[in-house]
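hiii, so i know i said id send this last week but things got crazy w the move. better late than never?? heres the sequnce for the chain we talked about at the cafe, plus the structure i predicted for it. fair warning i was half asleep when i ran it
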Amino acid sequence: MGQYQTDALVLGVKNWGEADKIITLLSREHGKITATAFGCRRPKSPLAGALQMFNEVDIQLTKGNRLDTVRQASLKHANRTMSTDFSAMAYGAFVAELATNLAVEGFPQGDMYDKLLEVFDAFGSRNPRIAALAAAFQILEFSGMQLSYERCVRSGLDIEGDAFFSIQEGGALLPEMVQPDDKDIMEYPEAMRVFIGQLLKLNWLEKPAFKVSGSIMVQAEALLLGYLYSMFGKPMKSLKFIQQLG
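okay and structure toks below
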C-alpha cells in the first residue's frame, strides 16, 4: 500500500468506533479523499487538533482498498470563526457538504480547493447566509452542473426582464417557452437574475457593494435548493443545522 502526502481541507468528520473518526478531505491533486483516523478521538492523539472541520492541513496518508488511513497531520491554517460562531459554522457546513457531494475522488480539484480557501476565510467578515449562497453558486461552476442564468435553455436566446426558471432543465426560460404541462417551474424575476450574477462575480477579498431584498434572497435560495434536491435526490443534511438557528 503506497503512502502519499498532500495539503487538504477537512470537509467532514464523523465518529467511528470508540476512538476513531472517518475524515472527508479535499486535495488539489487528489480530489476528494475519505480516510480513517485511528485513535483521533483520544485526548492525547497527535491528530485530534489538526483534523477539525474547515481546517487546512498538511497530511500523510496510506492508500487502502476502501478507505485511506491518516498517518500524520499538521495544521496549516485554522478558521477560528467557524469553530466559535454557530451561524458561520452552520452555513459553512452547508458549503462543505456541497463541495463533498460535487468533488470526485482521484480527480484534481484545484479550482474548488482555492475557492473554498477564500470562502472559509471570508465567513469571519461576511454575512454567513449570503456567503454560503454565493459560495454554492460559484462552486457549481466548477462541477459541470452549472446552471444557465442568462440564456433560455430551450430557445438559446438571451433573457431580458422577468422570466421563469426550470429546475429540471437547470436554466432560465423565456415566458413564451413555458408549456402548460411543465413541472418544477418557478418565477425568475430580473432582480433575482441580477443578484445571482453579482454572487457569481463576488470577489471574496473585497466587501460586496450590492444590496438585496429579503424576498429576492429567499427566491434565490429556493432556486438553489430546488436544483440541488433534483440533482442529489435528497435534501442537504446540513439544512437541519441551519434551521436550528431560527
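btw The mean pLDDT is 93. thought thatd interest u
miss u guys!!
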